[in-house]
Every structure is written in C-alpha cells, then in structure tokens.
Design a protein that fits this description.
By secondary structure, the chain is an all-beta fold. The protein contains no helices and 23 strands.
Amino acid sequence: MSSVRSISLAVLISATLLGAWISIAHAEDVLWSTTVSKHFWFRDTGGDHSWNPMFKVLSNPNITVKYHVRVVNAGTGEVLASGATVPEGTKIRLEFVPHVIEDIYWFATGHAADSPNGDWMPNATNPPGICNAKDRFYGPYQLGSITFISYVSFSVHPPAKQVSGLSGMNCTSISNDSQECTLTQPGTFNPQFVFNETYGKFWYERSHYTTSNPTVRCDSSSEPLYTSTTPNPPLDIYFGAKLSAMDPGPYTQTVPAQTIPFTISVEDVPEENDPPQTPTLTSSGACVVGQPHTV
C-alpha cells in the first residue's frame, strides 16, 4: 500500500470475507467503500408472529463512508492545500470537518428504490424519528387489505480521531479533536489526520395502513438486520425464514481505520536586526605586487 502525499492519489484495495473494499484518499478527503455479499433479513418480533420469522429486506449492499479535514491559516482564514508553503511564525488549524449524513451513502439490490444517505449515531443505534422519508426503501405494496412501505437506515458510530505527526510544531488541542499549531521553525512537516476503526448497522422500519383504518402506523425493529449467505434459506412454520438459518447475531459492518496525510513547508523569515552573514572568500593563489588579483 502506498501513502498519499500532497496532491498524489493512493488507492488501497484489499479483499475481505464479505467482499472487496476500497479506500481512496485525495487531497483532504478519504473515501472508503465496500460491497457486502450477503442477504439481509428483518426479524419480526411483533405480537402477530410468536415464532419471530425472518423476512428478506435487501441483498448485496454497497456502502460508502467519507471523511473530510481541512488546514486553515488562522491569521487569514485561507484554507491551505497539502504541499502549501507558509512563512515561519504562521498559526494554522488542523481541523476535522464535522460529519454530515451525506458522508454515508449506500444502495442495494432487492427492490426498485434505495436509501442514499445514512446516519451518524452513537453506538450505531436506530436514528431518531420513525419511518423517515430519506430512509424509504420500497413501497407502497399490499398484502391483503394492508398497505405497507418499507424503510431501511444505515447508522455508523462516529469514530475516535486524532492528529499525529506533530513533532516540531507548537500545538494545542481545540474542539472536535482538532489542533491549533504555531509553526516556529523552518522545514517540512507531515501531520496526519487519523480516523480510528468504527462500525455500522442496518435497521428496518415499516409503515402500514388499511382502507378501513387510513391512519398510518410505523413499526420499528428492536434489533439490527440479520444476514445469510444463501438467498433462500429454509422457511419457518407458515412463512418467513428460520432464525437458525441466519448468520450468528445481527450484522455489524466494520469500517476500517483511515488516514489523511498532509504536507506543509515553513520558510525561514530573516529578522530585520539579524547581523549580516560572514562572507566566504576564495583566492586563485598568492598575490603579486603591482598586478590585479581576483578573490
């Protein structure tokens, strides 16, 4: 794996048991993506089905998570690009850009619609609110007299993060795990923005109503989605798959640690009262009286 410096581009590709993942870092962003080659199932723990059957929701989701950082000249407000040069004495801020839902994108097969954006949630819990419009995945569809709409959300636990490689920079911690640094000596510095490994989970919700009762209700799952490697595992009593046919426990997606390197050069600024440097003199040989001599 090659590292990314300045305006270079590094592509890190590896294979996992769940499918290929890819990590791309360019400038001050890093993007991680994976395809999970599994089938995802909702466990119906409602009162209507005492045997808690499993219902397939989606298959083979592709997940993308993006992180953003920036380096700001604290004196001018200018956002610096990696590879920038600043004068000695400049104060900069090494900032983690706050997460937004647009930084998580996913899509999957199985239905005609998808849910493009995820949520940043502590412990990757189900996001607040129920049956959010942005999480609409499929529907409306009818089963008998009941009309349903399915919703799927993908939550990611915000990763711990830190800035490393600060040797030679006079830095103090500021908000959002960022750093403010005064560059007091000339040279080239290579701080790194580090996002620790984290994880995400899929959640299922379903709204429903009938012609006789048009009031819309929304039911939310009490646990994340399960997975299976086979698309059609054995069915339970009347309908729905058996829990025993699923992979152990609800599914948790690992998001590997990511690093965004940054390079900044600091140039020396001579002080006005600095004494002049002693000149270096060379001569081609001994002087001869009465003849010109070059030194």
